[in-house]
Structure formats: structure tokens, C-alpha cells
Amino acid sequence: MEIERKFTIKTLPENLEQYPVRLIEQGYLNRDPVVRVRRVEGDEKDFYLTYKGKGLLAREEYNLPLTEEAYLHLIQKADGRVITKRRYLLPCGPYTIELDVFLGSLAPLVIAEVEFPSLEAAQEFQAPDWFLDDVTMDPAYHNSVLSFS
Fold first, then answer.
1. Catalytic entry in 19, 28, 88, 95
2. What span is annotated as the signal peptide, if there is one (predicted)?
3. Residues in contact with 84: Cβ distance below 8 Å, sequence separation at least 6, in sequence order
4. Judging by DSSP bridges, how do beta strands 2-9 and 61-65 pair with one another?
5. How far apart are alpha carbons 28 and 77 in whole angstroms?
């Protein structure tokens, strides 16, 4: 189960380069249900096929590892645009803010996501001052929708 909230931001945090960053490329094979392939480049390269169920704040999520060869085959079958973004990992109390800075045709969009262990923790979360709007309940901010916008 994935429980996460999404936010737009006012400004990028200072010294962003001091935080761990990963380059992510992902494409969508299906949107209902969501089926995605993703390449993550950081210290290593990882490849995944992900299934996401319905929902906005909470939904099923399953990640299956792929080989690079399988990823390269499947990404060619993606519908819509392939999304590329830099994901910065910023500490925030017991949580991690995943700050996605979109590249290419979705730039200059920036979305902050925070995952939680429970619905209660998600509802109690106090967003930092540099967050702007809570867009968790707006499906327009799902990457599967952004890939077609």
C-alpha cells in the first residue's frame, strides 16, 4: 500500500545539490490500471515495472524488478510522453521529501511527495513553509496523467 501526499512548492530549497539525487525516466503502458516502467539512475541503475491501483491518497502499489533489456523493450511501447525528472531526497523529521524536478516538456514543474506509514500519519503531517498547495486529491498531478498533458 502506498500512502502519499503531493504538494506544489513556492521555491526550491537552498543548497539542493547537497541532497541525494536520482535521475528517473518512466513511461506508462496503461493508465487504468496504472502500469509503468521506470529506470532510476543514482549510485546504480535500477529498472522496474510498477502496478498502481485506484486511489489518490492511498492505493495499492507493486514494484517488480526488470532487466535493462526488458526495460528498453517496454519503454518503446509507452503511451504518451516519457517523463524524465530529477528526484532529490530531503529529510523531513521521520519522513523523506521526494522533490521531483521535471525535465523536458514538463519543465519547470516541481512536485514534492511524502510517503507515510499510515493514513493517520499522512493526515497529521505539517508541511514545511516552502510547500505551496496540497494537490494530493487532484488527479491532474499523477504522473500517469502528466504523461498525456
1. 28
2. none
3. 23, 24, 25, 102, 103, 104
4. unpaired
5. 8
Is 28 labeled as catalytic in the residue annotation? yes
DSSP conformational letter for 120: H
Closest C-alpha among 124, 107, 131 to residue 7: 131
> What percentage of residues in the chain have a pLDDT greater than 90?
95
Locate all alpha helices (DSSP H) within 3-87, ordered by sequence: 68-75
pLDDT tens-digit readout, 97-131: 999 999 999 999 999 999 999 999 999 999 999 99
pLDDT tens by residue, 3-19:
999 999 999 998 999 99
Cβ–Cβ under 8 Å, residues 11 and 130: yes
